[in-house]
Write a structure and sequence with these properties.
Layout (H helix, E strand, L loop, with lengths): L3 H17 L5 E6 L8 E7 L2 H18 L9 E4 L12
Antiparallel strand pairs: 1-2, 1-3
Length: 91
């Protein structure tokens, strides 16, 4: 289970982005179906892919510090078309 403070931070940021009416090209999502990009719940929205992966890193750190297993939840970054985005600079 996601640490509650991390979840609140992610959801608060997403809500502030929605109120501003800005289109955001990258989202951190929690998939619930086989089409991970389109069958998912938006957790946060970001202007850049780097910001999206930074948000994932914050959640991963919070989970690790809380003793939550790294595979407890699945979060992925998707673009504005719902395509899963791989982490830059990884093989």
């Amino acid at each position: 289970m996601l640490d509650s403070s991390a979840a609140v931070a992610i959801l608060s940021f997403a809500e502030s982005q929605r109120r501003g009416g800005m289109g955001v090209p990258f989202r951190v999502v929690q998939p619930w179906g086989p089409d991970k990009g389109r069958q998912s719940t938006v957790q946060s929205e970001h202007k850049t892919v780097a910001e999206a992966f930074a948000a994932l890193d914050v959640v991963a750190t919070d989970m690790e510090q809380s003793g939550v297993p790294g595979d407890a939840i699945e979060l992925v970054v998707v673009d504005e078309h719902g395509r899963v985005v791989p982490r830059p600079n990884t093989n």
